[in-house]
Amino acid sequence: MKKAFLVKKGDIEIRDVDKPTLQKDDDVILKLVRASVCGSDLWFYRGIDSSSSDNSGHECIGIVEETGSVITTVKKGDFVIAPFTHGCGHCAACRAGFDGNCQSYQDIWSSDCQAEYVRYQHAQWALVKVPGQPEDYSDGMLASLQTLSDVMPTGYHAARTANVQQGDTVAVIGDGAVGLCAVIAVKLRGAKQIILLSHHEDRAQLGREFGATDIVEERGDDAVKKVMALTHGDGVDAALECVGARQPMEQALQMVRPGATIGRVGVPHDEQFDLGVSWANNTSIAGGTAAVTTYDKGVLLKAVLDGEINPGKVFTKSYKFDDVAQAYADMDQRKTIKSLLTF
Amino acid sequence: MKKAFLVKKGDIEIRDVDKPTLQKDDDVILKLVRASVCGSDLWFYRGIDSSSSDNSGHECIGIVEETGSVITTVKKGDFVIAPFTHGCGHCAACRAGFDGNCQSYQDIWSSDCQAEYVRYQHAQWALVKVPGQPEDYSDGMLASLQTLSDVMPTGYHAARTANVQQGDTVAVIGDGAVGLCAVIAVKLRGAKQIILLSHHEDRAQLGREFGATDIVEERGDDAVKKVMALTHGDGVDAALECVGARQPMEQALQMVRPGATIGRVGVPHDEQFDLGVSWANNTSIAGGTAAVTTYDKGVLLKAVLDGEINPGKVFTKSYKFDDVAQAYADMDQRKTIKSLLTF
């Protein structure tokens, strides 16, 4: 089968390798229908993070090809979303709705998901079955289903951990695919004012379409001032940090009203912070890895299938899997917000 | 009138000074019935923090002696609790239940409250009226009412910001008066397992009386291991940091299950933390200054008057105001958990 490899910084190539096989009794082999490039893949592509895998791809939907002996929840031929973490569904973390931090297994993270076939471990509870078959759905709906493997639940996690409530005023920092999905999530949870920090008109436009009521184009402290002005000096009820860097966290800490929560979902890269600042303002700092299976089964799959949300629009370009190198390059150069891969 | 002064490190003395007078139209002058020494006063007494006031005392209950021209909520002769912060009740922070971070005024903190009379600023919303007169209550009830000026609401704040829910498993780190009041608060909110970290048998005993189900005497990493064992390896749903130092925060970060919240109410003193650790475990770090008026009016005054909670027991010794120096010295040397002052 074909599989994409990160050969070296900035260089992705497709190689022929053996198809993966069942290795444990709770494995499932999937034949992919869609895959995609995650913002976090670019950290490896750009050489900022070193990868533990030759392929950090972890977002896909597909058809069940084979099932291990203990798998009872899906069968050959089922159409499924493959969450990028694989919770057990019964440990304390999973029961509390944090299956991205499942305590039962160490190896809960997907990888090698930019390939024609994928070995999906601990599949029994984690996989999310989609009604029908891929051919029953439009390309747009398949794109939205593909977001349910990572980016849409990750945006939702920012909103959930920031405890966004009906009627809230919320700032979303970051106009990448995660930030835009966070806008969707914030609207889904009933926020009344959604302020998106965005420096790119195409992304701001999509943000507005997803529910942003205000766009802040300013940077740094000027962005904080603008958010304070938009909230009549109060500060926001919640700030969602969807970048994973120092400056947006510092902005978030400055733009929240006392007692507000910051939901962080950007993978952190520079994390020494003075918690005296958050203490002084009663700010909660929350967030981490999304609980994909919990959100998909609980809220998001229904919202997608009902057409209530349309997160697939973050894929502004689609590529044949053979063109995966171009999919990376275009996303790296911001020619697309997020790259979809078709098979 | 008599007023206590911190002359220098470890030296408290009483001096005769003029009685305070109304200076602004929302001031109230109080004649004190009870005052007390706060754990945070000891930071100044021990010379660890430098004080902006000669008297950092900020806990009292008393009788309204005079009212400024705009005060309509209390009148001369009323018996009141004087919260140590003075919120307005109508800004975004106060409306969200964080009146300890009121956005309307800069000068919301009490001071100079170890004296016979106190000038209480921004009194209109902040003061909490108690039914009847001091002579209607027992000494024990007056002690409990005195805790409502700071320590009991501060313990409650740890539990509230840590989002302690019915049925939760909670660790309370710190067996001072705040930690012990946090145990009361955690029980009041319905936690089923309350683990108190305590190294002193008298404090552990009071903790058990207040609702602690388990006492952990171990220190450092051994305490974390014990908490993990007590929770069958899961970690706690919430950890309450009631010390205000680095080590208890590090313990808290290690003993929480994924997705749990740490409520911090100890005044922070060493606050550079790696937030990558909390991100990796989806831990929320919350807390700050208590919302005393909100909690007293909403929950705590009724619970005290009903005898449902009895936080006054944290005052294990009572002193005539003239003996304030002894009250500090005994608390500093752990001869009493908390020192009550009578007039």
**SSE string of chain A, helix = H, strand = E?**
EEEHEEHEHEHHEHEHEHEHEEHEHEHE
CATH architectural arrangement of the largest domain in chain A: Alpha-Beta Complex
Instruction: Look up the CATH topology of the largest domain in chain A.
Output: Quinone Oxidoreductase, Chain A, domain 1
The fraction of residues assigned to DSSP E strands of chain A is: 25-35%
Structural class of chain A: alpha/beta
Count of individual beta strands of chain A: 16
Tell me the number of helical segments of chain A per DSSP (H or I, 4 or more residues long): 12
How many domains of chain A, as an integer? 2
User: Average pLDDT of chain A, to the nearest integer?
Assistant: 95
The interface involving the most residues is between: A-B, 43 and 43 residues
Q: Tell me, briefly, the overall form of chain A.
A: globular
Terminal Cα span of chain A: 12 Å
Biggest β-sheet strands, sense, barrel of chain A: 7 strands, mixed
User: Uncertain segments of chain A of ≥5 residues (pLDDT<50)?
Assistant: none
- Spatial extent as radius of gyration of chain A: 19 Å
CATH superfamily of the largest domain in chain A: Medium-chain alcohol dehydrogenases, catalytic domain
What is the chains' assembly state? homodimer
- Tell me roughly what share of residues is in helical segments of chain A: 25-40%
- CATH level-1 class of the largest domain in chain A: Alpha Beta
Task: Explain what the structure shows.
The structure is a homodimer. The first copy, chain A, is an alpha/beta fold. The first copy, chain A, folds into 2 domains: about 1-150 and about 290-340, Medium-chain alcohol dehydrogenases, catalytic domain (Quinone Oxidoreductase, Chain A, domain 1), CATH 3.90.180; about 155-285, 3-Layer(aba) Sandwich (Rossmann fold), CATH 3.40.50. Chain A is built from 12 helices and 16 strands. Chain A has helices at about 40-45, 90-95, 125, 140-145, 150-160, 175-190, 200-210, 220-230, 245-255, 275-280, 290-305, 325-330, and strands at about 1-10, 10-15, 30-35, 60-65, 80, 115-120, 130, 170-175, 195, 215, 235-240, 255-265, 270-275, 285, 315-320, 340. In chain A, the strands form 3 sheets. In chain A, strands 3, 4, 5, 6, 7, 15 and 16 form a 7-stranded mixed sheet that branches. In chain A, strands 10-9-8-11-12-14 form a 6-stranded parallel sheet, with helices on both faces. In chain A, strands 1-2 form a two-stranded antiparallel sheet. In chain A, helix 5 (about 150-160) crosses helix 11 and helix 6 packs parallel to helix 7. The radius of gyration of chain A is 19 Å and the shape is globular. The model of chain A has no long low-confidence stretch (mean pLDDT about 95). The interface of A and B includes residues 101, 261, 267 and 281 of A.
